Amino acid sequence: MLFSVPTFDVVPVVATKLLTLVCTLAVISNDIQHVRGLQEVDPVASAAGIDLSNYHNYTALQSLFRQLSEDYPGLARLHSIGKSVQGRELYVLRISSGLDAIKEEANPVGDDQRYPLLDGKPMFKYVANMHGNEAVGRALVVFLAQYLLKQYGREERVTRLVNTTDLWLMPSLNPDGFEAATEGHCYMTAADGGSGRPNANGRDLNRNFPDQFHDGHDRESLLRGREPETLAAMKWIVSNPFVLSGNLHGGSVVASYPFDDSAHPSRWRSVYSAAPDDEMFRALATTYASNHETMKTGHVCHGDSFANGITNGAKW
Ligand SMILES: [Zn+2]
């Protein structure tokens, strides 16, 4: 079911730069044909009644997630962690059993983005589409949400996952960029003739998080120059005890793991930047890549050369 590629920010406060360039099945194209092809190869999705035929734009995504949270009140709850530059909600669908035991309350506001915990359940999150024109990760998160909810109680693995894990699925950190992108255009940047990679202020959100080695650690340094989407994600991440995360991008097929930034970056060569949990990160990335049909080869996209389909973000 999943083809996408995570990068993990197990220690989000330390790994202050949120995540890495990572990629998905759709390799270099946002063409929906890639996704449509899944319908034929994924009988499980078909059997579960999940429509893989189209991307969901902002309006369609909003109504789908609202519908899911209404249809599965004990399993799904829709939140927004903030708003984009153009005022679109930054939606997150929380999926876990026992959510009906948590009192319905407004989204946290201000600096405290803390949500009530589900006793004993580790928090996991996927964030996709921070580059608005990298759309396949977004589609996969939308499909995954439906898959988990529709197969709960039917499929043992799904039931166990939803019973034991507090899952947060964010299909888009850059909804403005997605709306600005053109389906079928896989150009990365405006310079290449593409649109939608940055947010509505023209900023690359994947380059907008603090650099732990070169930015100050005082509050002002952490907040200065951050875009609304970046700030919303930062507050959400530091306010809640996520233990594992994946960030989905397009462009290569690889599982990239922290750190992305480096204490001693070189202009001439990339330098491995080990996180304190380096061994764990490598094990996680290897698990992901080795269970992927082609990622483990490390040579899926033109120019890709990744041993076992994984890379340290800074070394990339
Ligand atoms: Zn990206």
Structure description:
There is one protein chain. The chain is of the alpha/beta class. It has 2 domains: 7-32 and 252-316, no CATH class; 40-242, Aminopeptidase, CATH 3.40.630. Helix content is 28%, strand content 12%. The chain has helices spanning 32-41, 43-47, 58-71, 136-151, 156-164, 175-180, 219-223, 228-239, 278-290, and strands at residues 76-83, 89-95, 123-128, 166-170, 242-248, 255-257, 310-312. Strands 1-2-4-3-5 form a 5-stranded mixed beta sheet. Strands 6-7 form a two-stranded parallel sheet. A hairpin with a 5-residue loop joins strand 1 (76-83) and strand 2. Zinc ion is lined by residues 21, 131, 134, 206, 249.
What's this, in brief?
By secondary structure, this protein is of the alpha/beta class. It has 9 helices and 7 strands. It binds zinc ion.
> How many structural domains can be distinguished in the coordinates?
2
CATH class of the largest domain: Alpha Beta
Uncertain segments: 1-33
Number of strands: 7
Task: Estimate the mean pLDDT confidence.
Answer: 85
Kindly report how far apart the N and C termini lie.
27 Å
- Strands in their spatial order, largest beta sheet: 1-2-4-3-5
**What is bound: which ligands?**
zinc ion
Write the SSE topology.
Blueprint: H1 32-41, H2 43-47, H3 58-71, E1 76-83, E2 89-95, E3 123-128, H4 136-151, H5 156-164, E4 166-170, H6 175-180, H7 219-223, H8 228-239, E5 242-248, E6 255-257, H9 278-290, E7 310-312
Parallel strand pairs: 3-4, 3-5, 6-7
Antiparallel strand pairs: 1-2, 2-4
The structure holds zinc ion.
